[in-house]
Design brief:
- It holds the Pfam family DUF3141.
- InterPro entries: AB_hydrolase_fold, DUF3141, PHA/PHB_synthase.
- This protein is an alpha/beta fold.
- The chain is built from 33 helices and 13 strands.
- The N and C termini lie far apart (70 Å).
């Protein structure tokens, strides 16, 4: 006899209370959306009116005939140059297609390994970037391996121009490798095959650089969570991991700002991706993903970017064509790949939850990662907001002491405004954030286990006029991550309902519809459908293949030869700009109205189902939360570790321990402070034989002791320095390493305690005390 579903026996009073709470929450959300939409629409309308007023004032009483003629000539010439640029974009797209859609890198490269030759072939390959003229690399320095996202676009976003991730690493003297992929997948390849290929690539890089530290792996967007999953399964492969704009906690976000996370629920889950794959004869056209990205901001993608080209057609053509070259390079995924991505990440959120398993039954647990992790995200990113990039830390570790108990070092860096694509393609971001990430990684690897926030501030300009930046690393807590989520995470329970319904819908589609769709799909039909996708038609339809567009060349040549741009103060130019901004504002109002309706519809449907207890409480009992037991086990392990190591290591351990204490007293880690710790270890004879890995292990061991047993760490210093000469030498070494700048009160207090414990006379002045200079 079948078991009665749990929801059938639910207390009616409890269900009524849940429904009342849902209705009240929905009403509050509706009011908040109306107020937010009203404020945004009013602000845009006010700005539009003020722009019109300024433009009209400049034209009163009427524009001069000379201004009209000047504007008319400029208008016609810009039209010619604009449409000719669109034609060139189409021609370049056709050339790229004819060339086999190669990676769009701005750097020459040599192919090292082709994934098609592996036991489980994939369309990925490992390429070694050839340094451009004037740039040299040191083969003994840490190699960088950059993995690009395969999320609709082609490979190359991490290096499609000089100021990029590739460019910054090369200029710093590092060997650089790039994991590229072709636009079409190998038949039958899976996400696990791709992960296995990337593991082979990392081993090959390590083999080629045996004298170097382990490679730094950079994962962009979708590749970020793929790199994290690989590092969790094979933690010995990589050195520091940098993930940029990577959605590891896809359910997270802020109300009214991150509408993309609701799309899975509103579309019924993963079944639609399965349908598109079946119609594509087993392949999913990545142009649909690009279309989704474009639809997020229609005002920019369908109007403003083209007007910006039109307005700056004398200076902005190459920038436009450079970006469109990558934006229009569409890739294809196998149906099994897109289904795995959608089920495990977008709808299921299973990576952060640790419920994905490998083929041999191993659970992908992000706590298995041993490498330092740097997370780069942006407040201006509406595709992967900081909550999606960072909340996995909360879900995986739960408490600050768990991060330290596992010996993990996690650093996050937040940009305040750049959008999702800007994280990867902005030259300003590359010259600032990525340059400093490359310069700071070695120091980050020496950080004590814990959670840190990296801040990059401009500190002036060098003699060559290039900005100089100050980098600091401030220790943070899980509470700081939670505080970044300005809304409660309560709404994430709605996404659990989505996940359950998605599984039901996917199963129903597999049984009832998929066999029929696949029987009617053909390879030629799928290829025709891809060719007729609107984004592709936009390119080849507006190329020289179109006879009407081919006639533009003489018109554009005339415009260039007789170019007469209007004056900046021409009043008709202000009217044009006001009209363009008004159209963008109306696009934005429509977008905001659409997004508000989508979010409220999501909350109404899945909040109601959640209040009824469907389907999660009907089919799945909640799993027992074992985090408390895990923390208790970790605490016991750490206590044993401290007992075993607290009196071991001699002067080298004592020096590292003291430097960590002083740096902790400062409350902020800078590059210089961390480098002093490293130099302090190297300065002692006992540490000269240690390799970098052993020095890092020494720092991590002492940081665990300082974090978990600070009083015992101080009290046992005499055991590490048994001789009076050792203690005097330690005081002298510290004074020389840390300088003689005025110390802060916490540092002064710590120095007095250290001198008392070691039996040294108290210092006469702060200048005699070892202090950590300001970072």
């Amino acid at each position: 006899m079948s078991q009665t579903p749990a929801s059938v026996t639910t207390d009616p009073l409890r269900s009524s209370t849940a429904l009342a709470e849902w209705a009240a929450a929905l009403a509050r959300a509706a009011v908040a959306h109306v107020e937010r939409f009203g404020r945004g629409a009013t602000q845009r309308q006010t700005e539009q009116f003020e722009a019109w007023l300024r433009a009209s004032t400049q034209m009163l009483p009427l524009p001069r005939p000379a201004d009209v003629i000047e504007y008319g000539i400029d208008f016609v010439q810009r039209q010619a140059l604009f449409w000719d640029t669109i034609r060139v974009r189409g021609d370049r797209w056709l050339d790229h297609e004819a060339a086999g859609k190669p990676p769009l890198l701005a750097f020459a490269y040599d192919l090292v390994l082709d994934g098609r030759t592996l036991p489980h072939p994939v369309n990925y390959a490992l390429a070694r970037i050839v340094p451009p003229a004037g740039v040299s690399v040191d083969e003994t320095r840490r190699p960088y391996v950059i993995v690009d996202p395969r999320a609709g676009h082609g490979a190359g976003v991490g290096g499609f121009k000089s100021d990029s991730q590739v460019g910054m690493a090369l200029r710093a003297g590092h060997p650089v490798y790039f994991v590229v992929f072709s636009a079409d997948p190998v038949e039958g390849q899976t996400l696990r095959d791709v992960a296995a290929a990337e593991a082979v690539f990392l081993r090959e890089v390590t083999r080629r650089h045996r004298q170097s530290p382990k490679p730094c792996v950079i994962g962009n967007c979708q590749a970020g969570w793929a790199v994290m999953a690989l590092a969790a399964v094979e933690p010995e492969l990589a050195g520091p991991i940098v993930i940029n704009g990577a959605p590891l906690s896809y359910w997270a976000g802020v109300d009214g700002k991150n509408p993309m996370r609701y799309s899975g629920g509103l579309l019924g889950g993963t079944w639609l991706a399965q349908l598109v794959s079946d119609l594509g004869a087993g392949q999913f056209d990545g142009a649909w993903l690009v279309q989704n990205f474009a639809n997020l901001n229609p005002g920019h993608n369908f109007w403003a970017k083209y007007y910006d080209l039109y307005a700056t057609v004398d200076t902005g053509v190459q920038r436009f064509l450079g970006f469109e070259r990558w934006w229009g390079a569409y890739s294809v995924l196998n149906g099994t790949e897109i289904r795995g991505i959608v089920e495990n990440l977008f709808v299921g959120n299973r990576l952060a939850a640790g419920t994905i398993t490998t083929e041999d039954g191993r659970r992908i647990d992000l706590r298995n990662i041993r490498s330092p992790i740097l997370v780069f995200c942006s407040e201006g990113d509406n595709i992967t907001p900081p909550q999606q990039a960072l909340n996995w830390i909360v879900d995986v570790y739960r408490e600050d002491r768990a991060i330290k108990a596992y010996g993990h070092t996690i650093v996050y860096l937040r940009h305040l405004s750049v959008g999702h694509l800007g994280i990867f393609v902005s030259g300003g971001v590359a010259r600032k954030e990525y340059r400093e990430i490359v310069a700071t990684l070695d120091a980050i690897e020496m950080l004590p286990p814990g959670l840190y926030e990296m801040n990059v501030r401009e500190a002036g300009h060098g003699a060559d006029g290039v900005p100089v930046y100050d980098v600091s690393l401030a220790e943070r807590s899980i509470a700081d991550i939670v505080a970044l989520d300005t809304d409660s995470r309560e709404e994430e329970r709605y996404f659990r309902v989505v996940s359950e319904f998605s599984a039901l819908n996917a199963h129903a589609y597999d049984v009832l519809a998929s066999p029929l769709v696949r029987a009617g799909a053909t390879g030629s039909g799928a290829e025709l459908a891809r060719l007729l996708h609107p984004l592709r038609v936009e390119h080849y339809g507006l190329s020289s293949a179109n006879p009407w567009m081919a006639t533009l060349a003489p018109w554009a040549d005339w415009a260039r030869a007789w170019r007469r741009p209007r004056r900046a103060d021409n009043p008709l130019g202000a009217v044009e700009r006001a009209c363009a901004d008004a159209l963008t504002a109306w696009f934005d109002i429509g977008r905001d109205l659409r997004d508000s309706a989508a979010e409220l519809s999501f909350r109404a449907l899945y909040g109601w189902l959640d209040a009824l207890g469907l389907p999660g409480r009907m089919w799945n009992e909640p799993a027992e939360d074992a985090s408390g037991k895990q923390i208790e086990t970790l605490d016991a392990q750490v206590e044993r570790f401290v007992d075993e190591h607290i009196a071991r290591g001699g002067p080298a351990a004592a020096l590292v321990r003291l430097l960590l204490m002083y740096t902790q007293a400062r409350g902020e880690f800078g590059r210089e402070a961390i480098e002093r710790i490293v130099e302090g270890v190297r300065a002692l004879p006992l540490a000269t034989a240690l390799d970098p890995a052993q020095r890092r292990r020494l720092v991590h061991e002492q940081s665990m002791i300082v974090a978990y047993a600070p009083e015992r760490a101080l009290a046992t210093l005499p055991e590490l320095l048994p001789g009076a000469g050792d203690r005097e030498a330690m005081a002298a070494t510290l004074s020389g390493l840390l300088g003689a700048e005025p110390a802060s009160p916490p540092v002064l207090a710590l120095v007095r305690e250290v001198r008392a414990v070691l039996g040294l006379p108290s210092a006469g002045s702060s200048a005699d005390l070892p202090v950590v200079p300001a970072a």
